[in-house]
Amino acid sequence: MRWQELENEMKGDYDQKQRMKNHRRFGDMYLTPEKPEDVMPPKDLADMTRKETGAFPVDLHTNHTQMRYLDHSFDNIRRFKRYTHFQHLQYDQRMIPERLLFLGPDLAAAHFLVHRGAAIKFLDDDIWYKRDKKGYSLPGRKVPGLFIEAIDASGTELMFEGFENLHDLSHLRMLRLANCEYIDDWVMGKIGGSMPNLEMLDLSGCYKISAKGLMGLKHLNKLRYLRLEGLSHVKDLGQAALLLEEAIPNLTVLGVDYVEQMENLEAETRLLENPRVVQDARGNAFAEDDNGRLFYLNGSINERTAVDDEDRPIMTSTIRREIPEMDEVEFEKLDRLSGGKLRHMLLGSPSGHLWGEQVERILQHEAKLLTEDSIPVDPKMLPKEKRTLRLPPNLDEREEWKSILQSEMIKFSKEIADQETSPPKKLIEKQGNL
């Protein structure tokens, strides 16, 4: 800074002090104003800042401009709140070394679980400890010989980070995690590597688990019962269950409908055998029409939809894809083989939970509007009761699949029964030698 500028600043400060002293003077006494701006001469408009002119701050104006590019739908707000809650749970379930040091592994795990809504049972104790309106009563210091034998964390928000607190539970025999929405494949690996004495495990309703994740339990050699109810949507669940029963001796997997798994495998095989179906490198299946356009049928593409709190569609896409150029019977076969996804995606993915009901409701509504406006409706997009009349009666081959599957099951059960009633081959050979 040059000396001339410094001198001007000092002169300006001196003038400001003099004006403030002369604002209200009573002899040798004076009152200064609350704001120095009240006694200073007004600035020129070109020298004023946005704050001095009363305009919006630049930061506020920038944020307001960027708001146009944000998704303010109810569905996105729900996802944002769900994500912030997920981050809070990650921090809340972190490992606290001091708790493990002062309470020991079992009692520290008991405090962690009961505080978050789970129930625990100690070894040689018939009482289940759980949090109620008055709180819960657990020892506040390390107790020798106190071991957790069973944990019921069903319906809680236990996640992967929380399993760091379940360390060295050497006497744990039962673990119930039914309907825990944050239990995923990472947790399976954690359970398989840190709970060697586990005998009973309940994973019913944990919809984020995959067949590959279940293979993380193959090292639990003492596991006797594994419950997998409510996981019929998991691909290759029956195959994973059979592999686990083969890898772990004396294991019984409950809740797996092997018949349904066979039917799903048969439907997927029939779908991929269709000459119109092609696959990409990720295993996603697409139907190719006469014009070479691809329509998604099955795979790993995100099918998230905009739904309200009751899983009803908030809106459907107003952008309609062109109807595939193919025969009506071929279109209906592909739609049924894909479980209704082909027609479901053409309607803008109205709901990922109630495909049949929501799709038919939209088809009826749009067909009614087009009919009132005298616009022809494509036969492929007619409601179910109208398009059924146009299709041949022997279109659905699922009943044929079921009959073939049932006959094979009966044949297999007879072979097992014959093997159980007939003497072993080695015994017959031994008797012949004698």
Automatic annotation (TrEMBL):
Transmembrane segments: none annotated. GO terms for cellular component: SCF ubiquitin ligase complex. One of its GO terms (biological process) is SCF-dependent proteasomal ubiquitin-dependent protein catabolic process. It holds the Pfam family DUF7885. Residues 170-242 form the F-box/LRR-repeat protein 15-like leucin rich repeat domain. Belongs to the ATP synthase subunit s family. This is ATP synthase subunit s-like protein. It comes from Mesorhabditis belari.
